[in-house]
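Rieske family ferredoxin (Paenibacillus psychroresistens), 106 aa
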Amino acid sequence: MSTENWIEACTSEDVEVEDVIRFDHGDRTFAIYRTEKGDYYASDGYCTHERFHLSKGLVIGNIIECPKHNGRFDIPTGKAKKVPVCIDLRTYPVKLEGGKVFINVE
């Protein structure tokens, strides 16, 4: 992985346990998650069904539920888990350094 593709998204304290926040960078938008175990993940920000932003969704364990039609994705893998979603989310590597959350957008 190239070091220049790591982007600071937020601080580790910005994302509560079992929560999701929005992060915009340039013309792209992402969702940054923290699961019930305290692990951080990142994906594209919009649901693949009707492009509703996932930051308004509900995190349940390792699942993000879209608030518009209740479609669900597996947070670590982006795998579509419940209709109406049938296209997986793109996910991105995450690292923590000095209390900050970085995502690799390559």
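The first strand starts at residue 6 and ends at 11. The two ends are 8 Å apart (CA to CA). ok done for today
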